[in-house]
Amino acid sequence: MKMKLRRVLAVLMCMTFVLAMAAGCSSGSDSADSDAKEAGDSAADAADGAGVDIKDAKVGISIYQFSDNFMTLYRTELVRYMVDELGFTESNITVQDGKNDQAEQTNQINNFITSGVDIMILNLVQSSSAPQVTDMCKEAGIPVVYINRQPDESESDRWTSEGIKATYIGADARQSGTYQGEEIAETENKGDINGDGKVSYIMVQGDPENIDAQYRTEFSIKALEDAGMETEELLLQRGDWDQAKGQQITQDALTQFGDDVEVVFCNNDAMALGALQAIQAAGRTVGKDIYLVGVDALTDAVQNIVDGKFTGTVFNDYFGQAQGAADLAVKFLNGEEVGAINMVDYIKVTPENAEEILEKIK
Ligand code: GAL
Asked: Which residues form the domain of 257?
């Protein structure tokens, strides 16, 4: 009898050990996690994410600027998806406003580290700070998912070659620029409204430090030229993705260049909505004596395409990007391998599919 009891106890102890090991290796538990930390494992081991239950995972998110229209849609979808579909706990997710100030945002990242977040999702104010921020996170053993503003290739190459737990998800801005140029090339006069053999345009640029702004500016014109058109740049000015600036720049350009302006290219829809206000105030009519294109597919912009007041835009798929970012965060938390660069496709939005896109984003 005694013998039997001892054997049962031994088997039970064995099973407990196996279960504890399994918990530590797969989904993990609070105690396994804190034990690891207490054991003074290198920070990198402790957090490499692995071993945290999703519902317990602490997430630090910083958005470059809350007032940005597109990033507002993005962050709303990001938190919704994490909580409603992936099982994160809302109170474990902290979302900070970087206030378009890198020093402020770097402080927030330091606070995330001090408070012991398990993962960060970062929309950097300046993508050029990625090397410094990545090193901070690496030191602390916290994986990082960069979104929206793509760090230099040399930086993302380093993540791969040094095995750093960092990744980027976004959309290739060359594609959005190309679509904008094609939208103009597909109009009846290919953008040459006055028939003088060239397309005269103004370019309202986002923040020029940003690769999205650089590529959209370059590839929109390239696509138009590839379609056989000669182009003339009347003005290129930074509007920092901002509607009021888009309005002011376009208003001044229309005063200065008048009917010579055939196309207003805007690096995003917020600025294009501002440009539309200026175009209407100047008594011009989109589709008749001027063309206007943006990027993002904000609801107002797509509605304007349906109403014939915008020539086109490009859907910047914030659903795909936000959900992809959250999925990558989960992969890190599960200790899975994550590639350095993840791209989501843009979609051209023209009068042909505007209604359909509107349904998707409403
Ligand atoms: C772009 C987007 C802009 C602005 C910018 C911020 O992808 O088109 O509207 O949100 O990101 O970095």
From this structure: 174-315
> Does the CB atom of residue 68 touch ligand 1 within 6 A?
yes
Q: Is there a single domain that holds both residue 24 and residue 102?
A: yes
Question: Based on the domain organization, do 72 and 116 belong to the same domain?
Answer: yes
Cα(141)–Cα(238) distance, rounded to whole angstroms?
A: 38
Distances (CA, A) of 130 to 64, 118, 157, 181, 188: 13, 19, 12, 31, 44
Q: Is residue 155 included in any domain, yes or no?
A: yes
CATH number for the domain that contains residue 330: 3.40.50.2300
Torsion sign (Cα): 231, 232, 236, 241: negative
Task: State in Å: Cα 346 to ligand 1 middle.
Answer: 13
Residues 229-249: tens digit of each pLDDT: 999 999 999 999 999 999 999
pLDDT tens figures, 168-209? 999 999 999 999 999 999 999 999 999 999 999 999 999 999
Report the separation in Å between the CA atom of 241 and the middle of ligand 1, taken as the mean of its atom positions: 7
29 C-alpha to center of ligand 1: Å?
Answer: 38
Query: Does ligand 1 come within 6 angstroms of the Cβ of 182?
Result: no
Give pTM, 2 decimals.
0.86
Atom of ligand 1 nearest to the CA of 170: 7
State the distance from the centre of ligand 1 to the C-alpha of 56, rounded, in angstroms. Answer: 31
